[in-house]
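Why do we bother with holo predictions? Because pocket geometry can differ from the apo form. Keep that in mind while you read this record for fe (iii) ion.
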Amino acid sequence: MATLTEPKSDFSALPEMPADVFTAPLQKPAHLGDDWLEPKQAEYGPDQDAIWDDLFNRQMSVLPGRAATAFMEGTEKLDLGRGGVPDFGRISEELDKLTGWSVVPVPMLIPDHVFFWHLANRRFPAGNFIRTRETFDYIQEPDVFHDVFGHVPMLTDPTYADYMQEYGRAGWKAMKYNRLKALGALYWYTVEFGLIMEGDDVRAYGAGILSGPTEVVFATEAKSPNRIMLNVDRVMRTDYVISDLQPTYFVIESFDDLFRQTVERDFDRLYTNLPPAFTYANSAIIDVDYVVSRGTQEYLLRGGRGSGAEAV
Ligand code: HBI
Ligand code: FE
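The structure, written out:
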């Protein structure tokens, strides 16, 4: 059966996915090759550079004391606040010296196997467009601010950088077992919405938290959400929604711990034993959880996004 063949461990060439492997039906713009990379980064006008600067300054007013130290140091190492949308060539040069990663422009969401292939080769695909003033506070598609401000600073951390590459390498296997939802949950609760212990504090390292103003405070300080120590198996069985603040955040001890939990898990066994449709509700606390703080869920019980509920 095609879906259970060992995925290639040679990541030098873009893999062909067997016809029975599901991937989102995305229409490739005609000017792009099979790697989905834009020939060059977009040129941004003064209004767009000003949008970057305003977003940057707004985040920097809430992040100190709430964002992971590695993230704050990353923004400085890459000088992301020098003004205007950063040049991918310049930050790639800096990143290359630090961890061997680069940032490459893509037009939009790209197919899963292509996304994984870039990560497996230490290339981070970043959106080539920036949100408008109308969509300043909240967008669902990843733009250059979410991708470069949210994700790229963490790639200056050597252990985190290795974790992202391992995630890319793990992607094809998940696709071939048709368990991408499970691996996607790991990405969601670490790379996008992860928290880390620093002393007695929880700090945010997930890009989805760090690139917006509300969730930074909600994730680290509010009484609504649950905060649970990360367990890779448990997280991969957990549902997630992309349209509102999270009912639950998962907390890591260190990036070393995250890396080890991921590379040591035998994903073949996990996928073989994982029923295809089973998930824990994203607000559930289960018996094996090591709970850092049990949330009230007040925000979501009052209606969540659009209801006027306060993010407390
Ligand atoms: N494409 N541009 C882009 N950015 C992503 O974060 C992304 C993607 N394609 C697929 C994808 N993410 C998912 O496969 C993973 O997040 C699971
Ligand atoms: Fe993201």
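The first strand starts at residue 102 and ends at 106.
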